[in-house]
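explain this chain.
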Amino acid sequence: MSRSDNMERVPPRRGRAVRLRAGEGLRIVNTHGAQVVDTWAFNADDMAEAMSMEHLRAGLGRIYPRRGDGLLTNRRRPILTLEEDTAPGTHDTLIAACDVHRYAGLGCTGYHDNCTDNLHAALRAIGARAFHTPAPLNLWMNIPLDANGATGWAAPESRPGDHVTLRATLDCIVVMSTCPQDMLPVNGADCTPREVHYEVVG
C-alpha cells in the first residue's frame, strides 16, 4: 500500500493515541514491513473497559484474530473489528507489553524505551489516563508455537506497506506503540525498530 499524504507517523520507539468515534476506522501501515505495533483500545467513556487479550482468546476459541473478528473488552463486548488485514502470518495475543523490567531481565543496565511507558505517555498527550496496562494486541508480532506449546521469537512475516484497518464499534481511544525491542529479532533480523504510519478512515 502506498502511503497517502494525510497519514500520521508513529516514530520508532514511541507511541501515539487516537480518539475514534463508533463507526470510524484506523488504518495502520507497516511502512517498512518488519515493525511490531503494540496496540490497545479503551472505552472513551470508561477507561476501565479495555480491549482484553484473555477475553478475546476465550471469545474466539483461538489465539490469533482473523479478518472480520470483533476484538473484545474485559466486559466481553467488541470495541474494534479487524476489518482489513493484508499481511501474511499472525498478530500475537500472548505476549505482554515490554517494560523496564523486561529489558533489565535481558541484561539492559540503563533505561530502555518500552511499550508500557509509550502507552501511558501517549494517553497523557491527549489528556487521558489508564490505571493499568492491559496486554496488547501485538500487530505483526511473530511468536511461533511448537508442538509442545513452547514459544519462540521470530521476525515478522509482514511486507513493506502491509496494513490493517481496525473499525471502532464503541467510542474509543486506540494507542499504538512502535515496539522498541532491539535485543531480540522481534522487529526483524537486524533488531532495528522503525516508524509506522496511520490514518483515520471513514
Notes: Helices lie at 53-60, 100-105, 115-125. The two ends are 18 Å apart (CA to CA). The chain has three helices and eleven strands. The longest helix spans residues 115-125.
